[in-house]
Amino acid sequence: MLSFTRYLLTAGAATCIDVAVVQGLLSLDLRHQPVFLAAAIALGAFAGMSVNFALSRRFVFSIDDRPARQQFTSFVLVSLTTLALRLVVAYALVALFTLPALATGIGMLPVGAPAERLAHLGAVGVVTIYSFLAHKHVSFAGGLFNWLGSRKTVVS
Predict the structure, then answer these.
(1) Which ranges constitute the DSSP H helices of the chain?
(2) Dihedral of the CA atoms 43, 45, 48, 53 (nearest 10)?
């Protein structure tokens, strides 16, 4: 439980950077382009990813035998799955928030692109637990091949 609490704090710092980048980009007039939400979320994720790796490696997870470069590679691969999941959740939430029953209320919020902003924040929250577990069991536990190898021996 302590490592999850530490992860929430360190990932929280990375999330602040991520959210600042995405919310700032959503303030631009380009927000009406269909792929702009995905591009903004991806840029924010990459900014937060670097901070999250450095803080998680230092304060949350025990360091395995691999060099930092190999750990970072595993971290990036896991983070890309997290990014993909965030994009799916964000677009699902945008679709939900643009339904007539919700669109009127959300449209009254005093910010530009309110549905996209709320969808981004919701996606970040939903994916946090997956991110912690994936980094704990893959990124900082010997990498993907080690994780796959351990699954193979358990199944046998």
Answers:
(1) 2-26, 36-59, 68-97, 100-107, 114-134, 144-155
(2) -130
Integer-rounded Cα radius of gyration of the chain: 17
Q: What is the reported pLDDT for 1?
A: 61
| Amino acid letter, 128 | T
Spatial distance between the Cα atoms of 104 and 65, rounded to a whole number of angstroms: 54
Beta carbons within 8 Å of 9's beta carbon, 6+ residues apart? 59
Q: Are 56 and 123 in contact (CB under 8 A)?
A: no
- Count of other CB atoms within 10 angstroms of residue 92: 14
* Alpha-carbon gap, residue 66 to 71, rounded angstroms: 6
- Tell me the two tokens of residue 117: 């902003």
Six-digit token pair at 59? Answer: 């304060």
**Per-residue pLDDT tens for 20-36?**
998 888 887 665 666 88
What is the pLDDT at residue 153? 53
Cα–Cα distances in Å, from 122 out to 61, 96, 152? 26, 12, 35
Dig out the tokens for 1 from the structure: 């439980």
